[in-house]
Write a structure and sequence with these properties.
406 residues, 17 strands, four-stranded parallel sheet, RNA-binding
RNA sequence: GGUGGGGUGACCGAGUGGCUAAUGGUAGCAGACUGUAAAUCUGCCGGGCUUACGCCCUACGUAGGUUCGAAUCCUACCCCCACCA
């Protein structure tokens, strides 16, 4: 079957499972590298494959601007376009409602964006976002949502949450229309196990694979709003996965943890939970401990380009003078291409001379670091040692900066 | 030898009497980054003291001088560049 989730073990709220998608399976918990423009910045599909990543993201808004979804569709869909044959997920552009706040206006029907590329006005509605994602052809499409900042007042958080629910209905309707219109059978989750992939295959160049739509829980930092959001989503189900959005957007970490704990008991056990935009290594473990199965975050590659690498003990500035002349590997415990082939001193040199290889190598390490963290957590959940391992891991890991030399 | 131009903090380079420990830039150092408007952004960057406001020292080729006050004006010298002999 194209969309299924097998829960294999739990450790408290933490879960280990396997997500089956049209383009392959994803053992969970898992980190998904972000490839906004159809590229995990700086890395080839082969590079990303070697990090062990099983699924990556693309972005509706950015791919709509460049090269345009029709081009991607005519080139055979996002998988063929990018050379990444494993599962993919596209974000809906909802995050850009938040991140491009200065360049957009929201109304009930949708969002007008002033393109950051050429200034032209682009309209994104739930229908358009769904249509674009259908053309892009990822395994999973995300609902178009209204993300508000972490410090948003209740009224705004409520407005965003309610609107996201209304938009969800429109996304789903459009998604079913697209699936039905071209195949005669719905591609959405509810029927995933009742019709064969071949029967559902949309007749289009990017085809062969049906696509599932996932809803997104909003509600800011307000527990009751979060629960209402979840309730509304479940009433519009069933779904093959559920995302938690609007976190890590400026709110304190304990608040994010509290929201996750609030939601966890109400989340259906039988589908994967995806915490959008998270996160840093410690955030992954905290999320996993609170029942999250999937994560994505740009920090691995952005920090990689900016010369910050994650280590078991905390982050390290690769540009720093401390690494000058060091023959040590970046992270002796890591099995990535970078850590097994070059020294800290050489990596620092690459940043000093501003060669792109430095950015690529540290990005590879950071992505591998998070992917491996997911793999390790999974193994610990399966063998029953997750809790202790997680506590010890967090104890050893200092989020900000490596302790200074004595 | 003559004439003209010039010597500013690690480097390049502004500044022609007080608002100058001295604009900018580079290099150096440190930090930030969470569904990517990001190979980006921020801070520090002569030395010492102070929790801080701040204080002291040294500094614009060298040495003198003028002035209440000089990187800025004057004199001599040293060095660099261009052109002419």
């Amino acid at each position: 079957m194209s969309f299924s989730f097998q829960l294999e073990a739990t450790a408290g709220a933490a879960r280990a499972g396997t997500l089956a998608l049209p383009h392959g399976t994803v053992p969970t918990p898992a980190f998904m590298p972000v490839g906004t423009h159809g590229v995990v910045r700086g890395l080839s599909a082969a590079d990303v494959r070697r990090t062990g990543a099983r699924i990556i993201l693309g972005n509706t808004y950015h791919l709509h601007l460049r090269p345009g979804e029709s081009i991607v569709r005519d080139m055979g869909g996002l998988h063929r376009f990018t050379g990444w044959e494993r599962p993919m997920l596209t974000d809906s552009g909802g995050f850009q409602v938040f991140s491009l706040e200065q360049l957009r206006t929201i109304s009930e029907s949708g969002v007008e964006f002033r393109s950051h590329v050429d200034g032209t006005w682009r309209r994104l509605t739930p229908e358009r976002a769904t249509e674009i994602q259908w053309d892009l052809g990822a395994d999973i499409a995300m609902a178009f949502d209204h993300v508000v900042p972490g410090g948003a007042p209740r009224e705004l958080a409520e407005e965003g949450m309610e609107r996201t629910l209304r938009w969800l209905s429109r996304c789903r309707e459009e998604h079913e229309r697209l699936a039905h219109g071209r195949t005669g059978a719905p591609a959405h989750s509810g029927d995933a196990s009742t019709s064969s992939p071949t029967a559902r295959a949309p007749v289009r160049p990017s085809a062969g694979a049906p696509q599932s739509l996932w809803p997104i829980i909003q509600g800011g930092t307000y527990d009751d709003l979060r629960l209402r959001s979840l309730e509304g989503i479940l009433a519009r189900g069933p779904w093959t996965g559920i995302a938690i959005g609007g976190l890590s957007v400026g709110e304190p970490k304990p608040v994010m943890h509290r929201v996750l704990e609030t939601l966890e008991p109400g989340l259906p056990r039988e589908v994967p939970r995806y915490l959008m935009g998270v996160g840093f290594p410690a955030d992954l473990l905290e999320g996993i401990a609170r029942g999250v199965d999937l994560f994505d975050c740009v920090a691995a590659t952005r920090n990689g380009r900016h010369g910050t690498a994650w280590l078991p003990t905390g982050r390290i500035n690769v540009r720093g003078a401390a690494l000058k002349g060091s023959t040590e590997p970046l992270d002796p415990e890591c099995d990535c291409e970078t850590c097994t082939s070059v020294s800290r001193g050489y990596l620092r040199h690459l940043f000093v001379v501003e060669d792109m290889l430095g950015m690529r190598l540290v990005s590879i390490h950071n992505v591998r670091f998070l992917v491996r963290l997911g793999e390790q957590a999974r193994a610990r959940i399966l063998d029953g040692t997750f809790d202790r391992w997680r506590r010890e891991w967090l104890e050893r890991h200092r989020p900000s900066a490596v302790p200074a030399e004595p």
